[in-house]
Amino acid sequence: MSEITAKRAVVKQAAHALFLVFRIGSERFALRATEVAEVLPCLPLKPIPRAPDWVAGVFAFRGAVVPVIDLSALTFGTPAQARTSTRLVLVDYRPDEGAETRLLGLILEQATDTLRCDPKDFQPYGLDNREAPYLGPVRKDEQGLLQWVRVSDLLDERVRTLLYPSPPLDLMLFEAQP
Asked: Looking at the UniProt record for this protein, which Gene Ontology cellular component terms does it annotate, in alphabetical order (predicted)?
């Protein structure tokens, strides 16, 4: 391999990003791996009364209470199936550039694959889906269409206020004082 060819390969690799691929039913979706903080097995959750059906609950993680949403229930109204490949994926949720980054749990089915590709391969699909602004552009490959899920657009203001009250809940507040 010539030095020029090697440099081109490095530049091409740098343009690629890593995505976590998962399914909702038979449809494929992807999250940018840089937004994924941790992938866990499904854990028991404490439900939140009067929350939308797709809010699965909360759990304690490293001293903080983390809200969890079921992406299948949010997107198609059907809860994720309990499979061995269903995961609780913690993402760095930040609704806008000026906001604090918070952990958000996502219940994702078949979250076991990754894909490295150029983000420019994802193209708008021509619909203005205001009810699901988190569903981004699509990428066509040999398995069909893969849709990018934008973490920052997952929660509207009402649900964000419910899940992230001010000030943030901290488990240290719940410990008994001596």
From this structure: cytosol
Q: How far is Cα 47 from Cα 95, in angstroms, rounded to an integer? A: 23
Cα 49 to Cα 39: distance, rounded to the nearest angstrom: 26
Q: Cα torsion at 121, 126, 132, 133 (round to 10°)?
A: 60
The torsion angle over the Cα atoms of residues 86, 91, 96 and 98, rounded to 10 degrees, is 160
CATH placement of domain 14-172: 2.40.50.180
Query: 103 - beta bridge partners?
Result: 92
Both structure tokens of 44 = 């028991």
SS3 178: coil
* Cα distance between residue 89 and residue 154, in whole Å: 14
Indicate the burial class of 5 (C-beta count within 10 angstroms; 0-12, 13-18, 19 or more): exposed
